[in-house]
Every structure is written in structure tokens, then in C-alpha cells.
Automatic annotation (TrEMBL), chains A, B:
Pfam families: LacI (PF00356), Peripla_BP_1 (PF00532). It comes from the Bacteria. GO terms for molecular function: DNA-binding transcription factor activity; transcription cis-regulatory region binding. It comes from Salibacterium qingdaonense. Residues 2-55 form the HTH lacI-type domain. Keywords: DNA-binding, Repressor, Transcription, Transcription regulation. InterPro entries: HTH_LacI (IPR000843), Lambda_DNA-bd_dom_sf (IPR010982), Peripla_BP/Lac1_sug-bd_dom (IPR001761), Peripla_BP_I (IPR028082). This is Transcriptional regulator, LacI family. Transmembrane segments: none annotated. SUPFAM superfamilies: lambda repressor-like DNA-binding domains, Periplasmic binding protein-like I.
Amino acid sequence: MVTIKDIARKAGVSVATVSYVLNDRPVSDEMKAKVLKAIDELNYVPNEIARRLRVKKNHTIALVLPDITNPFYPDLAKGCQDVAKENGFTLIMINTEDKEEQLSGAVNQVRQGGIDGLILANAMEKDMAEVESLLETPIPVVFAHRSIESLAVDSVTADNYSGGYEAARHLIANGHEKIAFIEGLLGSTVSINRKKGFEAAMNDAELPLRPDWIVEGKTDYDTSYNGVMQLLNSSSNDRPTAIFSSSDLMAVGAMDAVKDAGMFIPDDVAIIGYDDLFMTSSLQLTTVHVPRYEIGRQAMQMLIEKINDKDTNESFQNIVLDTSLIVRNTCGSQRVY
Amino acid sequence: MVTIKDIARKAGVSVATVSYVLNDRPVSDEMKAKVLKAIDELNYVPNEIARRLRVKKNHTIALVLPDITNPFYPDLAKGCQDVAKENGFTLIMINTEDKEEQLSGAVNQVRQGGIDGLILANAMEKDMAEVESLLETPIPVVFAHRSIESLAVDSVTADNYSGGYEAARHLIANGHEKIAFIEGLLGSTVSINRKKGFEAAMNDAELPLRPDWIVEGKTDYDTSYNGVMQLLNSSSNDRPTAIFSSSDLMAVGAMDAVKDAGMFIPDDVAIIGYDDLFMTSSLQLTTVHVPRYEIGRQAMQMLIEKINDKDTNESFQNIVLDTSLIVRNTCGSQRVY
DNA sequence: TAAGGAAATCTAATCGATTAGATTGATTTT
DNA sequence: AAAATCAATCTAATCGATTAGATTTCCTTA
């Protein structure tokens, strides 16, 4: 491997001079030419690891998310990626799978050095302890999508409450009074707020919230499919006419369950989702658009600012992005299935 | 920041001893106890960057892919992630977006140090030059999904030729003789082989390959949608009865185009896709399953083996995984739209 | 022309770990 | 009891860069 010493020797200058050339410090044109020539001839590239050790800047950011396989996250990751790249940062992705270990892997990585900042897209109230220990480190952290409301943190989220409210309003405006709700991951602020929005709309319309019409969800297709199947069977004489799913992934599960139960959408059961995932448009699913890419972008922007003017300002920023209702056919008049 | 020196001082031993404890070298129980106590009390974590500089091992692998937002890749990435994690490696993701710069970013990262190996999931024949310069470095490289057939490399791919053949056979077995083909990214081995498989099946059945029924595709929904729309309009008196799309993303575009053109699937036009992306099952799309997660896993396994027994064997491995036809309704008898 | 000052360049310390090779001390062998 | 052996521990070099602070060079000014 060719090092800065080799360049110095070849060019007949000191390593300091080579370093100055590399870092655009004042150097005479003559020296600079010699150094550049040597660099070119030996095909030299500075060792980034040595540089990081000395300078204590890694230009590396970790993005922690539950599961890249969940189609919600790639867009968010892309937003992060793009901004990171624009600013010369490398991105490391850590999947926690919403499991036990959780953040601990990430926390360890951070403590080992090598990471200048973190974006957490998987925070849950139950991770408080680990999150707090993270916040004690000097490493800047920004929460994206999911936040922890009981803690003072920087965050970029979408307005889940009003999205939930609007979705429920839409169902109600279409004449539905018997509305079931598929709940998302328990303990995530995202699903909590979507549910609150739903409940507020129901209350404002003076409609009943029936506990047996709350399908305990997680995040996945299967849980939702099974839950809805059960809902449709068990309450055969007194069925909801609409289902509000707090995520598209689960809404698709609900659609398939309705269909497999031999019923029609939206005639028998209307369905509204949440997220506006890519293929839902082909499935005709009415849903709430969430600016996932933008969440990623802005979170990364905020983080990089924090990294750059470290300890400048100690106030916290909480950006909340708007959502919008995307009306398609699963709660309209045209039959989908 | 607390360093190994602080621990040595606190424990009253040399830094070497601390290092030995850290690295499980023989140390007396007495010393070990003292050191562990100091580590615990000062809450010390070794600096990974310093370690990397000295040992020249980074335990970091870069995964280069065109676009994490394309639903094909997250599963592959997850496969890589999981195996990397099992083996204590960190994963960096680089999106090239199939653009100009291409691999150059990755190549640079590699030359800077900090990366022990590369998985390329975005190789194309036209990147030969950059790929060759990569292969000249001592860094192991494994090709996943896309490979470069004219070069001796390690790779894990799916059997795109026989998948394409089987898909076309299925259409033909269902009585179709007029079959259009939506082509994937030009210059990618994946789409080349899928097309070859298609052509072989057509030839074997003595069916004509009409050039005007080849829709020039890229990878995306829109190009396909527009291409199919045009196909259906222009050849109104002599239309294909079936479309073989070389990717699901484009197949969905084709489905929507057929629908928007006021025709029915499969009655007027049958459609078969390729990839078996998640939501295609809800869309009833008949397709070819590609073991994406498994491709990622095996590629990472192969890479880590190469990293570990560097320079042991110099022969190349090319693993080709099986695909399987997933029959749903877009070429069957039951109407989808 | 000598002194003073600014700019360019160099020497050597440093970042925080690992690891040869030297040293120490305990144990075994004769 | 001295010599030989071996394991545990230490000292100091090292990885490849950056950067204070020292030194040199060159130009300005009196």
C-alpha cells in the first residue's frame, strides 16, 4: 500500500507538505506540482481510517430502522442516503427488527467511535432507557418517523394525528357509522397518534368506538389478514361496514381477507389504509399519503446541521410534515373486487 | 474520551496487558480482574477506528445496488445484512441509481480503505472498465443478482434463462401465440437472460418473435405503462394476446395500462411478470419467483469466506439459484379486472 | 547591508489501539 | 543451588494520517 511517506520521498518533500497539498493549505506552486506528480505516478489515495483516527471525524452516519423489507422504509432510507451523499457522508444501515436487542447494537457502534450521528427510525417508548443513554453521548441523534414524545429530542415526523382524523372523516362522510380499526405496532408513537386521530373523528361524529372492532395489529400482512378474517366471521350478524387500517401493508391484508371471505370492496366493506405505498395505487386502495422520502431528507439535513455546528444551539427542533388523503376506490362507489 | 491508557493507569498495569485482556490472550486471573474492574468503572469501550488502523481489518462490507427504492432490492439487502450481522460485519449501502458515476463512488471508498469486501448488485457490461479496476485491488468482490459473464468473477445469481423460458412456456401452454415482451434494463445480464429464455421458448414452439412487440423497457412502472399503452393502441387490428414482462414492477404498469385501455385481464390480454414482489400476490399476478433474500445471503456468505481465507483459493464460484413459476390469475381463466 | 517579518517548509508529537521483542519472575531440571 | 525453561508482563515501535511549533527562506525596510 502506498502511503503519504512514499509520496513525500518520491517528491522530495516532507510528509507535512504532502498533507498540506492534500488539504489545500498554502503551498508554493512548485512544491504542489511535485507532490501532485508523485501522487499521480504512484496512484496514491489517502487512507481514510488513519485520517479519521487523527481528526476524529468519520463522515459516517448510522440509520437505525426496524426492517428494510417493510416497504415503508426504503423511501425514507433513500431520502437519508441522498442528503448524506450530497454532504459527503457515508450511510450505515442497522436493522433492529423491532426485537429485544433493539438499539443496543447501534448504541455499541456509536460508543466504539466511527459514527458521527444517528437517525433513529424505530424508536419506541419502551426503548426509553437505551435512548436516554444514547442522548447522553456527545453524538447527535435525530428521530425520524417515529419519535418519543416524552423526551426532548430533535425529530422529523408526519402528522399522524390529523392523518388519522382525516381518514376516519372520509369514511364517515361516505356514510359509514360502523368502523373497525386495525391497530399498528403497540407502543409506537406513529400508531398511537393515528389511533387518536381516528378516535377523535369518531367522537366528533358521535359514533361508537367498539372495542371488539379494534383488530390488534402489529405491522404485518398476516396478522392483519387473520384478524380481519376473524372479525368478519365472529360478528356475522353485526358487522362493521368499513375498516380503517393504520398501515397499507395491513390494509392489503384486510383487502385479501375480505375478498377471501367472499365479500366485496367497497360494497360490503370499505377499506382505507395509511402510508400510500407504491403498489397500493394499482390495488385501488384509498389511503393517506406520508412523505417518507421527505422525512428521510429532512431528518438527515437536521442531523448534518447538528453535526456541523455541534454545541452551538441546544434547543430542539420538531418538524411535523403534512399528510394528504389519496382517494381511490376502496371506499368509493366503484367496485374494486 | 477514555482510552486504553486510562485503563492501564487505573488498573496499574501496562497497556499491553489491557490489550491482552481485551483480545483474550493469556493473562493471569489476578491481572484480568484488575483490568476488567477498571474497564467497568470507567465505562470503557475500545476505539474501533484505532483498532482498524493497526490491524487493517475493518469488518465492514459495502453493498452496491442501483436503488433501494426498487422493491426488488430490500430483500436482497436484508439477506446480506443478516449474514453480515451473524458474522460481526457492518454493512454500508451505496445506491448508484444506474447512473453515470456508477461504481466510481464505490471504487473510491474501497481505495480509501475502510472496506473489507464488496457485493455488487448492479453490475452491467458497460461498467467493465471500473469493475476490472476493482478486481485488481486486493479487496474481494462478489456479484449478486446481476453478474458480468465475460469476466471471471464470483457470483450468486438466479437462473434467469430458465425462468424466462418457463414463463413463456406457461403462456404458450395456455394457448397464446401472440406474445409481447417488455424488456428490462438494457445491458444487464439479468434482462438479457430472461429475454433469451423467452426467445428460446418461442423458437421451440415455432412462434414468431415480432420486433414491434418488444416494448423497450427500463426498470420502472411508467416506462412500461406508456409502452404497453402505445402497443395496445398502435396494433389495434393485430394485437398480442399476452404480455411477458421481464419484471413485476413493469408488469404492474402493464396491468394498469391494459385496464386503463378498457380491456380485461386475462380475457383480452394475459400478463406474466417476473420477480414475485410482495404485493403482486394481492394483484393476482402470475410471475416467476426469484429467491432474492437467498441471493443476498449466499452472496454475503461467499464474500465473508473470501475475506477470511484470502488468497487461499483462486478459483471462482458461480452459484445459480432456481426460480419457480407462481401461477395466479393474470394468465388463467378467472378474470382479474 | 543588516535586521525584521512573513510565508513556506520541516520535524516530531499525536490520535488509540496492537504486537514484536525484551524483561521479569517462577518453576523445573540436573 | 545454578542453569534452563517457560509463562506473564512490560517497553516501545507501529499503523498512516494531521498539525503544533521550530526552522528555513525570502522579501521588505531602514
